[in-house]
UniProtKB/TrEMBL annotation:
Ubiquinone biosynthesis protein COQ9 HTH domain sequence ranges: 59-88
Protein name, UniProt field: Ubiquinone biosynthesis protein
Segments forming domain COQ9 C-terminal: 173-241
Pathway(s) annotated for this protein in UniProt: Cofactor biosynthesis; ubiquinone biosynthesis
Function of the protein: Membrane-associated protein that warps the membrane surface to access and bind aromatic isoprenes with high specificity, including ubiquinone (CoQ) isoprene intermediates and presents them directly to Coq7, therefore facilitating the Coq7-mediated hydroxylase step. Participates in the biosynthesis of coenzyme Q, also named ubiquinone, an essential lipid-soluble electron transporter for aerobic cellular respiration.
Keywords for the protein's UniProt record, in alphabetical order: Lipid-binding, Mitochondrion, Transit peptide, Ubiquinone biosynthesis
Domain of life: Eukaryota
The family this protein is said to belong to: Belongs to the COQ9 family.
The species this protein was found in: Menopon gallinae (poultry shaft louse)
Gene3D superfamilies listed in its UniProt record: Tetracycline Repressor, domain 2 (1.10.357.10)
Amino acid sequence: MTIFGMVSRARPASIIKGLWTPCSLRCAGNRRNFASEGESKDTGANTETDTKDANSAYEDNIKEKLLEASLPFVKTRGWTVSAIHDGAVSIGYPGVIHGIFPKPGVELIDYFNKKCNKELNERLTNSISTSESSPQPRQFIEHALQTRLKMIIPYIEKWPQAMAIMSQPPNIPTAFTTFSSLIDDICFLAGDKSVDINWYSRRAAVGVIYKATELCMIQDKTVDYIYTWKFLERRLDEAFTVDKILQANESLKKNFAELAVASFTTLGNIIGVTPRVR
């Protein structure tokens, strides 16, 4: 018994040892503990980030499958949520899964455009790698534009709807980004490595020709779109003639290029997109 009638209990040896441990060693131990806690928090944060990335990749994979499965239904359903509904059902998903797309029609169109752009890029790159000589810009660009436009043919009846949807103000940034990437790839692979104001003028010219031919194509009723390809050929002839004139006249060339730069910059500022200069 001790004072106040409390029973004395022997302290465990570990506690006694701890009381007599030098402060420096105890502090070092505390630092190790704190470090361990910090490392644990960092590990937890990294794990959480990895989980989010994995979930995002999984969702993107599901979306891609759904959009790919929806394309065959565009011919009857158009670029609509109904096409995505039918596409989802066709591969075993519930139709209501279309709710994961905030803008069903826009996302379906953009998926199709990006898919076609990627396929075109692969074709052109392979063509260049297997060719013994560098491509002639005029013929190369005509072939590239024609190949890309032909990818629309299976959906030609519904393509005016796609053009109308992507021309709506909220959708212009998405449309412009994907389209400018297409035109840049074509010009770059055709041999245009310019980093000055010619970058803008040449891409502006090719972009205008593509869009003009696209408008011609959706109205063309000739066999195999012969009229459309003649139209494309004439527009390219005119563009290359103008380019030769501009190259021969530095003042005119500079004025035209500055106009192209101003147009690109203004459009980019309006829709919040910066042109990609390689």
